[in-house]
Design brief:
The complex is a heterodimer of chains A (about 160) and B (about 425). By secondary structure, chain A is an alpha/beta fold. Chain A contains 8 helices and 6 strands; from the N terminus they run H-H-H-E-H-E-H-E-E-E-E-H-H-H. In chain A, the strands form 2 sheets. A 3-stranded parallel sheet of chain A has the order 1-2-3, with helices on one face. Chain A has a 3-stranded antiparallel sheet with strand order 4-5-6, with no helix packed on it. In chain B, the strands form 5 sheets. Chain B has a 5-stranded parallel sheet. In chain B, strands 16-15-14-17-18 form a 5-stranded parallel sheet. A 4-stranded parallel sheet of chain B has the order 10-9-8-11, covered by helices on one side. The two termini of chain B are about 35 Å apart. In chain B, about 55% of the residues are buried.
């Protein structure tokens, strides 16, 4: 998904990551990918730490369907605000590279427009849709602060609050 | 249908009557543990969105175990940053360098974590909590969200039950059993990803310290928890030192398990795990005689006091072999102090071992005491992925504290039973 040196080097800026997304599998991928494109993957997608890859996918506006992925990978992907359905058994049989597909992540409805086939998978759990819509953990925290930590409340002004 | 112990603990923390595997809940932790590696980044993450406080400074524990002696100028700088953050956030439970020790060990020993406790922790080996019948849930970098909001979305994990039958042979220890458990699960095609491995059966002879050792290897196979129902004696001892109220929790007789397996303890031999994964264990007989250079006793899986007692028993009156370096890392400052008073410290020092400050020791990436290219290590580390603590072409064997100590004395992999007769399990308890 993403070269190891970017993971080990803790690169988190999409600008650094996007040009290398899937570059080993498909050079120039990031130039061809368009927002709304969907990555369809097999079993155990994204073993090991791959958050940097999910950041790049989210930045490109991609969605992700996997037959399976490790739970902590799924967690990391949602935390990056990536739209992902992690339990789509058999999805690789339903799609060829380049097919036109439609995915509703909130219902799990999958349709292959090129072939006229479809199936319903487990959707993003309702409790987590906010997290994805807000762009992941940072968006979630930002909204949480607005709701729960009004400005200038306790007088405990920290450097962070002063910078705001 | 009843609930497993883990489900009950999550239901209580989530203020729900019941939960089922797959449910998304927002549990409120009894405490939160943050290790030294994630304090500064969590602060930066919350600063960036303008969150200037933690949900409850009284329930937050900062522990220092991954880089205790500051092995680089950057680590020293991080120490000063952590101390400043403790002040800014008003953290009430700060275990600085030289205080506390391993964050997966001393909270259990000192009554901070007891049977039934629920907490969030950034590091995956918080599964040690299951050794005393508690649940510690690993959340990685999302610990920042917990610090701010006091909770985090959590999928209730499914549980797999493994019933242990019979008794281990003398000379076979908790780590050996843990290594065999993950081999057997791998062979049977059981995927532990985000599952809780609940142990059942003939568990009474396993002391608290050995239970902690059992938790290590399943965690490396991606289990999110290991749960071992505590004995009455373990509960009583925990109550006597409790720093917070707790209530032991057990699975209902009709709780649902995704799989139900058994393992015969009496057939387990001391194990040696090949480099590259904790499920690569073999019986020690096939590895005896392999020369070693580097030995380490400690880590979250083998830093309990009994581990040190077993190792000292083998080292007493003996010397570490020429050309071998042996590191001993107690799991906690409690253990270090006890080693002084019980004479263990003297045994290790006279044997030529290097006793290091309590914490993760060599296992946290080889910041201290790494292996060089081509060297052979045998240790009780939690993990032996290629390059885990040093050169990528070094051998990183894993074994029990007894096997590591015996091997350090001879200079090659040695069955500890060749050195001394061990009492049958439970005989002394």
């Amino acid at each position: 998904m993403i070269p190891n040196w970017l993971v080990a080097g803790r690169y988190m800026d999409p600008k650094d990551l996007v040009p290398h997304l899937f570059e080993e599998l498909r050079p120039g991928f990031h130039e061809k990918a368009k927002p709304g494109d969907v990555i369809v993957a097999g079993r155990n997608f994204g073993m090991g730490p791959k958050m940097n890859g999910y950041i790049a996918m989210q930045a490109l506006g991609l969605g992700l369907l996997t037959e399976s992925m490790p739970f902590l990978g799924y967690r990391a992907a949602l935390g990056c605000g990536l739209r992902v359905l992690d339990r789509c058994p058999g999805v690789l049989d339903l799609v060829e590279d380049g097919d036109e597909v439609e995915v509703d992540f909130s219902t799990g409805a999958f349709a292959n427009r090129s072939r006229g086939t479809g199936r319903t998978f487990e959707p993003v759990p309702e409790a987590l849709r906010d997290l994805v819509e807000l762009g992941g953990t940072s968006g979630f925290l930002r909204r949480w602060r607005e709701a729960n930590q009004p400005k200038d409340t306790s007088g405990r002004q920290t450097a962070a609050a002063a910078h705001r | 249908m009843g609930m497993t112990a883990t489900e009950k603990i999550l239901a209580r923390a989530s203020r729900r009557d019941r939960v089922r595997p797959g449910d998304i809940v927002f549990p409120q932790p009894d405490l939160v543990i943050v290790h030294d590696g994630l304090v500064v980044s969590s602060k930066a993450e919350l600063d960036a969105v303008g969150i200037d406080r933690v949900f409850d400074p009284a329930r937050v524990y900062f522990v220092t175990d991954h880089d205790v002696v500051y092995t680089s100028p950057r680590a020293a700088e991080r120490g000063t940053q952590i101390r400043r953050i403790v002040e800014e956030w008003g953290i009430q439970n700060f275990f600085d360098v030289g205080q506390g020790g391993h964050g997966h060990i001393f909270p259990i020993q000192s009554g901070i974590v007891g049977p039934g406790t629920f907490y969030f922790d950034n590091d995956r080996h918080c599964t040690n909590a299951g050794g005393i019948g508690a649940v510690g849930l690993r959340v990685g970098t999302e610990i920042a969200t917990v610090l701010a909001t006091g909770t985090l979305w959590t999928k209730v994990p499914a549980s797999i039950r493994l019933t242990l039958r019979g008794r281990t042979k003398p000379g076979v220890f908790g780590r050996d059993v843990g290594f065999r458990i993950v081999q057997d699960l791998a062979r049977r095609g059981i995927d532990l990803d985000y599952r809780v491995l609940e142990l059942a059966g003939d568990l009474d002879p396993f002391s608290l310290d050995e239970r902690i050792a059992l938790c290590s290897s399943p965690t490396e196979m991606r289990a999110i928890g290991v749960f071992i129902p505590p004995t009455a004696a373990i509960v009583a001892a925990a109550k006597a030192r409790a720093k917070r109220p707790f209530e032991p929790v057990f699975s209902d007789p009709d709780a649902e398990f995704e799989a139900d397996l058994t393992l015969d303890l009496s057939e387990i031999e001391p194990q040696v795990v090949m480099t590259g994964g904790v499920d690569r264990g073999v019986d020690i007989s096939t590895m005896v005689g392999t020369a070693i250079n580097h030995a380490f006793i400690g880590s979250c899986g083998s830093g309990m006091y009994e581990d040190l007692v077993v190792a000292a028993g083998l080292l007493k009156g003996r010397r570490v072999a020429r050309g071998v370096r042996l590191f001993v890392v107690p799991g906690s400052e409690i253990n270090t102090r006890r080693m002084q008073t019980d004479g263990l410290m003297q045994v290790f020092v006279e044997a030529g071992a290097m006793v290091m400050p309590a914490g993760c020791g060599i296992c946290s990436g080889g910041k201290m005491g790494p292996v060089h290219s081509g060297e052979v290590s045998i240790s009780t580390a939690a993990d032996n992925a290629i390059g885990r603590f040093g050169a990528k072409d070094a051998e990183l064997y894993l074994a029990s504290p007894a096997t590591v100590a015996a091997s350090a004395v001879t200079g090659h992999i040695t069955d500890p039973r060749d050195f001394q007769a061990f009492a049958p399990k439970g005989a002394a308890a």
